[in-house]
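Weekly modeling sync, notes
Attendees: S.R. (lead), two postdocs, one rotation student

Agenda item 3: backlog of single-chain predictions. S.R. asked that every request posted to the team notebook include the full sequence so nobody has to chase files. The rotation student volunteered to paste the first one in as an example of the format we agreed on. Action items at the bottom.

Example entry:
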Amino acid sequence: MTPSPRAQGSYPKTPDEANHMNRNSRPAITPVAIVGAGPGDPDLMTVKGLRRLMGADVVVYDKLVSDQILDLIPTGASRIFAGKQARNHHMPQEDINSLLVRLARSGRRVVRLKGGDPFVFGRGGEEALHLAAENIPFEIVPGITSSAACTAYAGIPLTHRGLAHSVRFITGHLAKEGSLDLDWDGLADPETTLVVYMGLTNLETICDQLIRHGLSPDTPAAAINQGTRPDQRTVQAPLSGLAAAVEEADLVGATLLVIGKVVSLAPELDWFLPGQVDIDDETGSGD
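Predicted structure, as returned to the notebook:
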């Protein structure tokens, strides 16, 4: 069976192979690797994602990629920052799309490195569609999304028997200036865990709308800041007081909101001690 042209290309699997490929010829266009870097802890990056990073000639990365992940980029590989945050786009999406095409056509091995998972509020689909329209081969390397990792590191299970039978992921970021137009009636379900990406700017509106549409003001809620990283902070409060608690804590940067009964388990399940020495680092794995 002939492989799809979008899957063709050659990537290194080890550092030695990467060095060998750097010294030898390669395909005119190597597939662009759209890689999920995970939530920040480098130990949570996938093996495949790390292999792609080791063999990169150029890495186009986002604001949410942690410094610890960036430290894994090989010496000699070019770095291009294409970060975005609410109301402040360092590089518009259209420019990022065009950049990926130009870099791929130059013959370099391109890694598009995105925080979390590229297909979960990461606009990876838009970039892949643009590459496909330009006949540029690509591949998607999934990453652990923050809704799974950050909640786990905060001791909050997304589902739990008797507390939550479903999960909903939404973005609290406005695509354009205007109102936050969401299905508030559907979201105000006391049996569902609600996870909000990019919701810090509109936190007060989100809480008010959920309460207005029937969710109890006493619903447990949390804001997880810099999840899985050494400076992780978690703020817990009833839904009605979450916005004030977050403001008092002065949280800035990557923050995930979790709303639902499962948050009540955090005091018992909060196992992660930010800044702790990794068990393997302390005892020596494999000895």
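Discussion: group reviewed the output briefly. The domain at 147-269 is CATH 3.30.950.10 (Methyltransferase, Cobalt-precorrin-4 Transmethylase; Domain 2).
Action items: rotation student to repeat for the remaining queue; S.R. to check formatting next week.
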